[in-house]
């Protein structure tokens, strides 16, 4: 099972980012606020918590030869690691969206979620030299929460550090972005995702690992979500339906839309991501002229057939429309079944002669 970021000792694929943070600290060039951005599920929050542990556990610079493997590593048996993992370190706060009465993540970070940050950050460190705040899904802060954080960033307390984690930093207030040093993480390689899948889901077959790693687009978080929600089967059902284009009407369309709509929120989100990722693969095929690397047999032929009959700008327009549909579905509480049907039909219209 993948551990929560504050309790995860493992860190893969971002050695350059880790070294960059170490050098900023070691060279006394550490900004008071950092925006760690990149795709969802690639390790941003894990890196933020890893850096927080390092600062709170370390009093002296490490020797140069200590950087060879992992410069920010703190062993799990270290008291600082255990305290942060248990949520009881007096100089650390992890701020994230809370759950609603049904157990689902709330849509936004509210002022109530971060109100205690202002008081916390103004206090003198209780144990070491630093006080650290990690804000996950920072782009979900509503205006009140964002403005409250902005005031703290404008007048930072001495020896305080904010680490804002975001997979869509464009939604943050521009004034918040301007007060942060920015560190962008790239997606993991497919090989790294495979290794992590084998580590966290050892019962998966090699074929399933290969398919999931291809579909995950460099995100171990996405790969694990796909594994837990039978994402490969869902992808196959989606492609089987799209192969019938332009005629998408009938029982198959309604069966798939009902399946996605009646499941939990995560599966609905996964389906939207799979559909958009497939559209990107089709566009890539049309731009480069290269055949799509198949996850499912027959996928390359379908992509090739579609790119020869439709303009690429139309595909991009539909990609944007589907992204908007799925993003607004949660915010506006739209009918999920109708969102799925509308998204698929938008793709089907492109295939009409």
Distinct helical segment count? 15
CATH third-level topology of the largest domain: Rossmann fold
Shape: elongated
Q: State the end-to-end CA separation.
A: 48 Å
With strands numbered from the N-terminus, the spatial order across the biggest sheet is: 2-3-4-1-5
> So, CATH architecture of the largest domain?
3-Layer(aba) Sandwich
Broad structural category: alpha/beta
Q: What is the CATH homology-level superfamily of the largest domain?
A: P-loop containing nucleotide triphosphate hydrolases
Outline the biggest β-sheet: 5 strands, parallel
| Helix content estimate | 40-55%
Order of helices and strands: HEHHEHEHEHEHHHHHHHHH
The number of domains is: 2
Top-tier CATH class of the largest domain:
Alpha Beta
The overall average pLDDT, rounded, is: 87
